[in-house]
Amino acid sequence: MKAITFLVETSLSIILSVFLVRAILQLVxxxxxxPITQVITKFTNPVIMPLRKVxxxxxxxxxxxIISCVIVALLMTAVLIFLRAFNFDEIVQNPSAFLLYxxxxxxxxxxxxxxxxxxxxIIISWIQPQQHSPLTALLSELTEPLLxxxxxxIKPIGGLDLSxxxxxxxxxxxxxxxx
Length: 179
Fold this sequence. Notes:
Elements: H1 2-27, H2 35-54, H3 63-85, H4 89-93, H5 95-127, H6 134-153, H7 164-178
Helix pairs in contact: 1-2, 1-3, 1-5, 2-3, 3-5, 5-6, 5-7
């Protein structure tokens, strides 16, 4: 049963991460002609497009994308509670704890997603320095809002960009604090 729970939790975390990336893409005004972005858009459109008819964007914030992330986190929490306890009494008896746990799961997934995106950015910069590809463009668009402030403080040393290190440490500390 633990293996099934692990597989379901991992699958739902990946789905939640895709929806989070979609929301971040909207926030950073990413290039939606990027082939990877188009795949993410096609995957998430069945949920987001109906929500957009009801929830208009508020400024730069695409409320449909944010609400879809919340819905996926709530469903993920409900499925995991069902798999672990085989009853929904916990949800009915304490809905505020359910909502808090779902929100915590959403934030943890966002922190972990950014940690991995920054790590991939670092690895790709070692493998393909100064190369342009759809993946590097997407990673740059997603991580630049977090890395730009660190780059202003920590200048490159001998051509080596050390600015991701404190960002990764901060993300790790936040994850540790929430778990």
